[in-house]
């Protein structure tokens, strides 16, 4: 049972030196031609599958998203998937049962909010180290700061991408009054009527900071990570967050926690996660 599950190391250097496109589902995605990813090596993140069902790969780290997509589109389970094992907030058994009908799944281990396990504690030095570890084929656990995009970037690095293009990944900065592109926006609120908006400072600051850290780390290793703001015929509109705006957003994102929780983080959670994140 579960022979369909294959470890992501089998994808190592599969697309060495090639461009890999990663599609999120922010409002800009609706502006792209439906055939935009045809003939491109591509990875769709969760609801982006609704826009580009013919993409090379799908990525999932979230149980409810994959369950929804499998229920509305039978083709979703017939196309190659890269997935976290287990999916966020679920057990390995629950994840395997959900993915059992899928034809082909490459999995990776995940530990969220590296390296400390605390959301928002983005570490640029650790990110560079993890990127280098990934490029040398020595990484076994990856994690993200609140978005599946970060894990997908690591998977693109596993596959040997020479350039990584991000589309539909505005982290609430593109048309912030809308969460996703048209049909995905409807699906989002059907499955998640709760939760903060992507444009909420608490929500998007860690996302933006970790994406910027990954962009800088990739550049350090000679890999260009091109963060496209939206579709244009020349694809020359790039997303560059204003540093002063981001600093103000970070102040707004500051949260207060109880002494008990802070002691737990200091004495247990951070030390444990720093060890696990080294793998």
Quickly describe the structure.
The chain is of the alpha/beta class and 279 residues long. It has helices spanning 63-72, 92-99, 124-135, 148-158, 182-191, 201-220, 243-252, 259-276; strands spanning 5-7, 19-23, 41-45, 57-60, 81-84, 105-110, 141-142, 163-167, 224-227.
Overview of the molecule:
The chain is an alpha/beta fold and 279 residues long. It has one domain. 35% of the residues lie in helices and 14% in strands. The protein has 8 helices and 9 strands. It has helices at residues 63-72, 92-99, 124-135, 148-158, 182-191, 201-220, 243-252, 259-276; strands spanning 5-7, 19-23, 41-45, 57-60, 81-84, 105-110, 141-142, 163-167, 224-227. Strands 1, 2, 3, 4, 5, 6, 7, 8 and 9 form a 9-stranded parallel β-sheet that branches. It is globular.
